[in-house]
Write a structure and sequence with these properties.
Shape of chain A: globular
Order of helices and strands of chain B: EEEEEEEEEEE
Helix content of chain A: under 10%
Structural class of chain A: mainly beta
Oligomer: heterodimer
Largest sheet of chain A: 6 strands, mixed
Distance between the termini of chain A: 40 Å
Structural class of chain B: mainly beta
Largest interface: A-B, 24 and 24 residues
Number of strands of chain A: 11
Number of helices of chain A: 0
Number of strands of chain B: 11
Helix content of chain B: under 10%
Distance between the termini of chain B: 36 Å
Radius of gyration of chain A: 13 Å
Order of helices and strands of chain A: EEEEEEEEEEE
Radius of gyration of chain B: 13 Å
Strand content of chain A: over 45%
Number of helices of chain B: 0
Chain lengths: 111, 110
Amino acid sequence: GQQVMQIPQYQHVQEGEDFTTYCNSSTTLSNIQWYKQRPGGHPVFLIQLVKSGEVKKQKRLTFQFGEAKKNSSLHITATQTTDVGTYFCAAIIQGAQKLVFGQGTRLTINP
Amino acid sequence: NAGVTQTPKFQVLKTGQSMTLQCAQDMNHNSMYWYRQDPGMGLRLIYYSASEGTTDKGEVPNGYNVSRLNKREFSLRLESAAPSQTSVYFCASRTGYEQYFGPGTRLTVT
């Protein structure tokens, strides 16, 4: 079945440093979503990317969808302690009825 | 507007016991989902229901059954719990493309 690989699995940064997580698929994706899960919490939707080469920004977060629609990235500029959590990418399959999630990148921050 | 609610929050079962995890949403969403989350594995889809009256298997359905009782409620049943089913279980509902998750049930099977 369709798989979405996400790297790295863990990332520890100093507060103020940048952070990037990458999501890759062997097949072309129709679109990709990103979710954030705070420690002990539940996943919360951040954004969906649809177009080839699309770039979207939410304050310090920048989301990109690759030109070939096989990869995506989430970049956080100047991390803050509130950014701590696990970030998941997810690809929509089967007529948008199901999502397949990447393994997630757990971000921890040294204040 | 409570969103997606799940009960119980925590549960400990002995191997072989059965239980039902409850999920309800008050957002009038058609689609509902059950996921399990294990360390390093991300979220894996167990079952989903695209609309009231329909259910379909996801990636890891073995050992589980579901019931879409009505538009609001989607329950997950473990008939004979096994230690491999120790996990955090999330229910979600969807409108458009965004999924809304419940707070989760942390299940331990000893």
